[in-house]
Amino acid sequence: MTYTQLAIGSVVIVVLADIWVLRTRMVTRRAFWTAYAIMLFFQLITNGMFTGFGVVRYDGGAIIGETSPAVGPPPFVGQGRIAFAPVEDLLFGFALILLTVALWVFWGRRGVQRTPWAGPPIWRGGRAAPSPKPGPRPPADGASAPSPDG
Q1: What is the pTM of this model?
Q2: For residue range 35-84, what is the model confidence (pLDDT) as tens digits?
Q3: Is the dihedral of CA 50, 6, 90, 59 positive or negative?
Q4: pLDDT digit string, tens, across residues 73-106
Q5: Closest by Cα among 103, 110, 118, 125 to 24
Q6: CB-CB neighbours of 99 under 10 Å
Q7: What contacts 7, CB < 8 A, 6 or more positions away?
Q8: Structural Rg of the chain based on CA atoms
Q9: pLDDT at 124 over 90
């Protein structure tokens, strides 16, 4: 399989998982798309730096567009690239972000780790800290509390 096929396949699988398996429907929410736009901005910066400076190079047979040039940066926009990075990188990034957010919401709805525990994990023999029991509160005006014996 080519990088393009894997990228498109990952987006399809994760969107289907979001809608029908996990039933979080993140792709239908404005908040998700706003958060994704923010993450996309930073993804373009970092991915563009890696590919623009030649740290990461791509074979034209595996991506949409041409092979990364031996000397100099690839095109900034065009030939299947946006900000030097292949479109496939953006597809993988979308799939990873959507899957992470969808799983976060999915497990959060089920109450996984709703109340954080302090101390070592249970599997190491640790125990959850007991929750404080409500007791008598001191008067709000600063006066001393009445003694129990009158």
Answers
A1: 0.68
A2: 999 999 999 999 888 888 888 888 877 788 777 766 667 777 877 788 87
A3: positive
A4: 777 787 778 887 888 989 999 999 999 999 999 9
A5: 103
A6: 18
A7: 87, 88, 89, 91, 92, 95
A8: 26
A9: no
- The full DSSP string for 6-61 is HHHHHHHHHHHIIIIIS---GGG-HHHHHHHHHHHHHHHHHHHHHHHTTSS---TT
Cα–Cα distance for residue pair 61/64, rounded to 1 Å: 8
Distance CA 86, CA 92 (A): 10
Answer with the residue of higher pLDDT: 26 or 118. 26
State phi, psi for 88 to the nearest 5 degrees: -60, -35
Geometric angle at alpha carbon 68, from 65 and 71, rounded to 5°: 140
Domains in the chain: boundaries: 3-109
The tokens describing 110, both together, are 């089920």
Query: Edge-to-edge strand order for the sheet containing 85-86?
Result: 77-78, 81-82, 85-86
CA–CA dist 22, 106 (Å, integer) = 6
* Residue 60, CA atoms < 13 Å, CB-side half-sphere: 8
What is the arithmetic mean of pLDDT over 4-29? 95
